[in-house]
Amino acid sequence: MAPWWLAWLALGAVGCTWLAQQRLQQLHDAFDTDARIAHRVLSQRMVQHEAILATLVLLQPEGHAPEAAPWRALTRPYPQVREVLRHVDGAQAWPAGWPRGMEAALTQSRASGRAVLAASNLSEGQLYLVQAGIPASFALHLDLRTTALTDDWPLPPGSPVHAWLTLDAQNYTIQGGTEGTGRWQWQAAKTLAATSQPLVLHMQQAVRAAMLPWSSMLGWLAGCAALLTALRQLLRQREARRRAEQLLQLGQVARLNTLGELAAGMAHELNQPLTAVLASSQAAQRLLAEAEPDTPLLRQALAQAVAQARRASDVVTRLRRLVEHPDAATHTCAVDLPQAVTDALHLLEPQLAAHKVQLHPQFAPGLPAARADAVALQQILHNLLTNALQALSAMPVGKRQLWIALTHQGAQLQLTVRDSGPGIAPDMRPRLFTPFATSRDHGLGLGLTLSQSLAEAMGGSLQLDAAAPGPGACFALRLPVHVQHTR
């Protein structure tokens, strides 16, 4: 179960990270776009101020009455221009309310030939711009509070973006935003494109958790969970189907071997009585031939008995020859015994889990390969493990234990299967490997006999290990070590 959780976490983390990056990249691109638009808007406003002054200096408009001065009308199309002042050098002083330094800025403008920022009070959003001219110079009193927040300003009210202007150590906040500073922030800073007004536009936005696409990420996690659940279910179904097919194949082999063992046992049991019938019938026929003449009916009956006895003997002999496997040893090969045990346990994994059996495998390291028939070995292991499970079913759940040990003993490998069941009854031990001997209600008594015959056909042995410590029954399977022949 843990690998599936890890797969879900890994897949979910990758997908959520990608979704979060895509969303944050979209928001960051929008922030960069708004920063470029804001810079362009403010730069256009500042350049307009220079253009206004340059036009006034060039045209030199005059007004006899202050209230009729034509430049006063500039405050209507340009709301950021609070006041326009015409100044004649030496003929008038700067009016009250205008800051100091106007004369110095006028001198600097006359030397450079362009507009100069005379004074600034960014905390209140006030700028004073002047450009020298002949016979009169012109100055603008600008209000930044109406410069930025116009219809073409890209940031709507309530935007989380914080925007402000800086000049030297002065700051003017254009838009405060709705969020405070965070650990991760997007920032942009660029000087406005007006030589006379070298203000720097700063924009900043804190990256918050609320920006992440939580609904999409939760949907991705749910989709990954559904996909992995379906995949896990599919794999479990395939595994169960493959296990069922292997068990079916193993069961078919077991039934065939059981039938063969049954036929061999019947042939062994019936051959001697039939042979005795044959010998008695022949003797009776000879005696009848030497004695007084018998009736033809008796001779005919005895002849038929002899013929049927011979026929039965031939049939039984052919059946035994058919079901026996005299060439089983020719099919042996190198078999990895630990892997064979693992495969057998895998086939019986549902039964082990259903019975809640505590498994204790003990495999010695560096075991060589065994010389065995893979199919016959699987049949033996299946019989031993099935017998152990049936014995453990009579025990309480907490006491169902199964030990499987693999050791190397000289030229043989030994496999022991020991359970914590009730063990073998003393009266059954001498008949344990006898055909049809069983202590179970529905048992045939051929499983251990078949397993012993298969083990002996591979050059090994199968015995009950009566000296094994602990409760239950312990069976020891010995198989020869595979020897690699070299030429």
Descriptive notes:
The protein has 487 residues and is α+β, with helices and mostly antiparallel strands. The protein folds into 3 domains: 2-211, no CATH class; 234-324, Helix Hairpins; 331-480, Heat Shock Protein 90 (2-Layer Sandwich), CATH 3.30.565. The chain has 8 helices and 15 strands. The strands form 4 sheets. It has a 5-stranded mixed sheet with strand order 10-12-13-15-14, with helices on one face. Strand 3 and strand 4 (136-143) form a beta hairpin. The chain is rod-shaped, with a radius of gyration of 53 Å. Residues 325-330 have low confidence and may be disordered.
Provide a quick synopsis of the model.
With 487 residues, this protein is an alpha+beta fold. It has helices at residues 2-59, 102-112, 214-290, 296-323, 337-347, 349-355, 374-392, 447-457, and strands at residues 81-88, 116-121, 126-131, 136-143, 162-167, 170-175, 185-191, 200-206, 333-335, 358-363, 370-372, 401-409, 412-419, 461-464, 474-480.
